[in-house]
Write a structure and sequence with these properties.
With about 300 residues, the chain is α/β, with parallel strands linked by helices. The chain contains 12 helices and 10 strands. About 40% of the residues lie in helices and about 15% in strands. The protein has a 5-stranded mixed sheet, with helices on both faces. Strands 7-6-8-5-9 form a 5-stranded mixed sheet, with helices on both faces. About 50% of the residues are buried.
């Protein structure tokens, strides 16, 4: 079998990718996959549009923004499409910095986001709104949304005092808790079913090239959820996320959680997508273009998506 080499942009080190590689599933699908860290969602989609990466792990809201919203941070759109749903958030929640005792202490404080008009930022706004804090969207809010980039960068900012709270998941939340940060509330607890990460590519040629990757990842997810790869998952979690054994075990258990973990069939279900789109329309009501983003005719989901 001829191997295809793919470069995949990620915000955080991916346990899913590493388990797929270590288990031999990439070899079975004829793939060589290289992870490339991305500093922020605008940087990730710049790389996707320029062809610096073949595919990416990203928020579904980013795919909506860079497909339909001309006012996105890059100032232009492209044929970004969702190839597969990967996870339902992996513990996404709002964390306050060590020493912050509750949401009232966030009034007037800096709160970290990737960029202010992005899916994880909208999720953060909703969680903090449920705790009584007005979001800084469409006017002044009870706190300042400060752009800090990807999840690892926001974790570092939370722990070194550059922000008082941020949205974390995918293992960064566990590291935050171990360092004394306080979980204020979880995203799915407040907003309902959610998609945290999807596989995306730009244009039919790159999408076609990435279909073998989406198949390999779906197969890996099914094996992880079934429990047959538990030992390998723990090994790869410790290596990828630098977590001690107890936190690695918590992360591995989360991967199998039907409400918060991996999506074993790779299907982007409508309820979760409705939540993602609803948050964007709630906090960016002036963006009329995405209102019909989930209409199959608009192409958000690749025709060969899982």
């Amino acid at each position: 079998m001829r191997h295809r080499s793919l470069t995949v942009g990620v915000f955080s080190p991916s346990v899913l990718l590493r388990v797929a590689r270590a288990s031999g599933l990439f070899d079975q699908h004829g793939l060589t996959v290289t992870e490339v860290p991305c500093a922020s969602s605008p940087a990730q989609f710049r790389d996707l549009f320029d062809g610096a990466v073949d595919a990416a792990f990203t928020s579904p809201d980013n795919v909506i923004a860079y497909r339909f919203v001309s006012g996105n941070p890059l100032g232009h759109t492209g044929d970004a499409r969702i190839l597969a749903a990967l996870d339902r958030g992996l513990g996404l929640g709002v964390y306050a910095a060590p020493g912050v005792k509750g949401p009232d202490e966030l009034r007037g404080a800096a709160v970290g986001v990737d960029v202010p008009d992005s899916g994880f930022a909208f999720g953060l706004y909703a969680v903090l709104e449920s705790l009584g804090l007005k979001a800084p969207s469409g006017g002044p809010g009870d706190y300042e949304a400060v752009p800090l980039g990807s999840t690892p960068r926001r974790l570092a900012a939370l722990l070194d005092g550059r922000c008082a709270a941020t949205l974390l998941g995918a293992g960064s939340d566990l590291r935050a808790e171990a360092a004394g940060a306080v979980r204020l509330a979880g995203l799915t607890e407040v907003c309902g079913p959610y998609l945290g990460t999807v596989l995306t590519a730009v244009g039919p040629r790159r999408a076609q090239a990435a279909h073998a990757l989406s198949s390999a990842l779906a197969q890996t997810s099914r094996l992880i959820v079934s429990g047959v790869l538990d030992r390998l998952v723990l090994e790869q979690t410790r290596a990828a996320l630098a977590l001690p054994d107890d936190l690695a075990a918590r992360y591995a258990a989360r991967l199998r959680d039907p409400a918060d973990g991996l999506v074993p069939d790779g299907a982007a279900d409508r309820a979760a997508l409705d939540t993602v789109l609803g948050l964007r329309l709630r906090y960016r009501p002036g963006d009329t273009a995405p209102a019909t983003a989930l209409d199959p005719a608009r192409g958000l989901l690749d025709p060969q998506a899982c």
